[in-house]
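Field log, afternoon session.

UNIT: design team B
ACTIVITY: writing a sequence onto a fixed backbone
BACKBONE:
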């Protein structure tokens, strides 16, 4: 081999000697980065099941209670401090006779320190060709203690609704002619919110509620809702059952009893979004044949928005 060829060979060898350590170093850094990421993910606070992803909220609430709703029919606990919740809840009632009624509720809520929460709602009712923006409501909520400090984790909510249109979807116990023509009065609503995970992966939530009209032909509602869910795929899919019972008295001293029950499914396509669907079947004469619920919600700024491994500290 000539001297020139030897020099060229040594040059290539030096290049290979430099390139191989560089590639090896990059490989080591990649492996370390992957290991660090896996270690960070494993540091996320998990529940007793050891396989369900749960980033605790500001008051120690698990992920399923991090939002202000357990389902389209049932509210739950309070939001973490400075957490925002935006949601749309649709209820479509298909009676045994007559036209279907649809109620669309838009919600925006904000969590505050000391287990308080404030919110605003806007309702739109649709029945046949009639569509009305029926009322706008303001609400406040308070939890009595941090999560699991009090059995059933009770919270209370109070809401005042300003009637701004015609009563359509909510007046299911009145004839169809009157349903779309009467003004929506102001009203208030009180709720007791309960929720608990009694055994791993099984979640329960319930509301007791009372609503009273303040003007016009006064009506009042009283009843309860209840949901039971099982976590099928952690942080992704839940299956369960939902129910709602409502006793209503109207201005003519007539009363009705609505009871609906059926399956429900919750899907979480990403860290911040939850979709809940529940087709509930009517079980009494005053109940719709089918009441279909759909809710889509988005949460940001709370425990679920924290990077993995950085749980929000529990405020007392």
């Amino acid at each position: 081999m000539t001297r020139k060829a030897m020099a060229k060979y040594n040059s290539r060898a030096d290049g290979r000697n430099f390139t191989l350590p560089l590639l090896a170093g990059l490989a080591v850094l990649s492996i370390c980065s992957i290991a660090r990421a896996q270690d960070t993910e494993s540091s996320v606070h998990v529940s007793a099941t050891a396989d369900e992803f749960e980033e605790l909220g500001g008051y120690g609430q698990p992920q399923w209670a991090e939002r202000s709703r357990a389902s389209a029919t049932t509210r739950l606990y309070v939001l973490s401090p400075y957490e925002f919740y935006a949601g749309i809840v649709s209820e479509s009632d298909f009676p045994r006779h007559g036209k279907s009624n649809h109620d669309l509720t838009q919600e925006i809520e904000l969590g505050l320190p000391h287990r308080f929460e404030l919110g605003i709602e806007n309702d739109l009712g649709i029945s046949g060709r009639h569509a009305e923006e029926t009322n706008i409501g303001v609400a406040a909520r308070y939890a009595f203690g941090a999560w699991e400090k009090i059995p059933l984790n009770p919270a209370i909510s109070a809401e005042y609704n300003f009637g701004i249109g015609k009563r359509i979807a909510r007046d299911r116990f009145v004839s169809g002619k009157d349903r779309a023509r009467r003004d929506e009065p102001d009203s208030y609503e009180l709720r007791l919110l309960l929720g608990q995970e009694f055994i791993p992966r099984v979640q329960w939530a319930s509301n007791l509620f009372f609503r009273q009209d303040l003007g016009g032909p006064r009506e009042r509602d009283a009843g309860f809702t209840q949901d039971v869910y099982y976590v099928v795929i952690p942080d992704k899919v839940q299956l369960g059952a939902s129910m709602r019972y409502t006793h209503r008295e109207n201005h003519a001293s007539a009363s009705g009893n609505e009871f609906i029950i059926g399956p429900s499914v919750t899907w979480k396509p990403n860290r911040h979004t939850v979709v809940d669907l529940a087709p509930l079947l009517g079980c009494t004469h005053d109940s719709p044949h089918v009441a279909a619920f759909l809710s889509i919600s988005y949460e940001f700024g709370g425990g679920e928005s924290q990077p993995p491994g950085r749980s929000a500290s529990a405020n007392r």
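LOG NOTE: Residues 100 and 108 are 27 Å apart (CA to CA).
NEXT ACTIVITY: expression trials, pending approval
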